[in-house]
Amino acid sequence: MTSILWLRRDLRRTDHPALVAAHDAAGAGGVLPVFVVDPTLIASAGPERLTALHAAIIGARESFDDMLVVRHGRPEEILPVLAREVRAASVHITAESTPYGRRRDERVRAALMPDVPLVATGSPYAVTPGRVRTGAGTPYQVFTPFSRAWRDHGWRRPAELPVGLTWHRRAASEPLSFDAGGPATIGAARVDERQALDRWHEFLATGLESYAVDRDRPDLSGTSGMSVHLKYGTIHPRTMLADLAAVTAGRGPDVTTYVNELCWREFYADVLWHRPASAWTDLRPGLSAMAYDDPSTAGLADWQAGRTGYPLVDAGMRQLLAEGWMHNRVRMVTASFLVKDLHVWWPFGARHFLAHLRDGDVASNSHGWQWVAGTGTDAAPYFRVFNPVAQGERFDPAGDYVRRYVPELRHVAGRAVHQPWKVAGAYDDGYPAPIVDHGEEREEALRRYAAARG
Fold first, then answer.
1. Which of 63, 146, 174, 405 has the fewest CB atoms within 10 Å, i.e. is most exposed?
2. What is the CATH number for 257?
3. Which has the closest alpha carbon to 346: 365, 363, 360?
């Protein structure tokens, strides 16, 4: 008897409940780990995102003793064939919570032979989305009460590695490749279980103690860098929470702040579980009458390319294109600029982010954008408009972050880089002038907000 372990957002061997379940269900045929390269997901991913996925799959192959089988195609077509091929008695997964993932899994469940169940165990979260509810049994709408209930609910200890684990060794694997548009520097990134654990332990030892203060500074290495590992499941948040519980002495505020960030990820996944349409539409209808501009003429292309003339915005957008990542503080500033300075509806920005972010997670991405746009749960008031100059001077006080990603301004010293229009010669190397006047567009955003609210 053979069990198939179908890997998706759980590309690791440690703390893996679905692996434990597959092992428990397997007989002499052992466990067959498999990754299906789904063309639907590949089609929407940019080069850096594909590079990270490629690295995570290669890393998983090593974690699973080179026994990982790769197949290309639609999962509902690939897995039934593979199950017949290896005479699998069950297919095991980590439960999915995204709208696409849930639909895909139902198609696979229906396509498998009647006597081959699709068994879901665990989730990519410390607490499975949908579990934390109010006393009345309804979903939480606001983060703070959710976070209290989430902590009160608690989570299991990390899962132990199965004892006596054996692999199924008689299934052929296809070469791992992506279609045209895939990464040119394939394999350049390291996104694997070993790196995840090494980076996490390094952060606990040297970065956690200043996290509460430094996390808002894009010019510093003040974040943990774990978001990409959570995205691909090369580490489980339950492992991280167990480690954080062991290092609270003397670092209480930093631990509390970090756990809070993990909780935001869980909250957004819970919101998406209950309201799947909020992935790409306004969660709250209060601004349904908001007037937005046509993105093709409103400056969307300049924003995407990092050519808006506002240095902090442009640095962030160029970092996104070059590295597939952007500092969270800068994500908020760039999102605010698109929605409230250029008056473009947030899904246009959210899709661009999701295509390029190595750590792109639909729940966190879309609901983070809605927080800025004022249409989501726990939304910042729409009339809160991020000033890109003030944000730059506060969180990149010496201008180092801007100069790192905007080479046309590297000759402008200090914080003056955030207002190049005040510096003689600042535009000598081709940096563009601002495409809009922030003060005027802020007033326009507030006018549209008042009109939408009636």
1. 174
2. 1.25.40.80
3. 365
Residue 86 CA to residue 67 CA, distance in Å, equals 14
Helix residue spans in 275-380 (DSSP H): 300-305, 311-323, 328-336, 346-356, 362-373
SS3 36: strand
Beta bridge partners of 30: 2
* 0.85 exceeded by pTM: yes
At position 181, the amino acid (one-letter code) is: G
Residue numbers of the domain that contains 102? 2-124
Angle between helix 346-356 and 362-373 (nearest 10): 150
CA dihedral for 303, 306, 311, 315, sign (positive or negative): positive
- CB count in 10 Å sphere of residue 23: 20
pLDDT digits (tens, 9 = 90+) for 295-309: 999 999 999 999 999
What are the tens digits of pLDDT across the range 72-90?
Answer: 999 999 999 999 999 999 9
Angle at which helix 143-153 crosses helix 252-274, to 10 degrees, equals: 100
Using one digit for the tens of pLDDT, what is the confidence trace for 383-424?
Answer: 789 999 999 999 999 999 999 999 999 999 999 999 999 999
Both structure tokens of 31: 């466990």
